[in-house]
Amino acid sequence: MNKRKIIIATRGSKLALWQAEWVKAQLEKNNPDLEVELKKIKTTGDKILDVPLAQVGGKGLFVKEIEDALLKKKADLAVHSMKDVPTDLPDGLHLAAICKREDPRDALITAISNQQSAVSDPGKIKNFKSLPKGAHVGTSSLRRMCQLLNKRPDLKITPLRGNLDTRLRKLDEGQFDAIILAAAGVKRLGWQKRITESLSASISLPAIGQGAVGIECRVDDVFINKLLKKLNHKTTSVCVRAERAFLKKLEGGCQVPIAAYARIISQKSKKNLKIKTQNSTLVINGLVGSLDGKTLIKGSKKGRPADAESLGNKLAEILLSKGAGKILAEFYGTPHKPY
Question: What is the pTM of this model?
Answer without folding.
Answer: 0.89
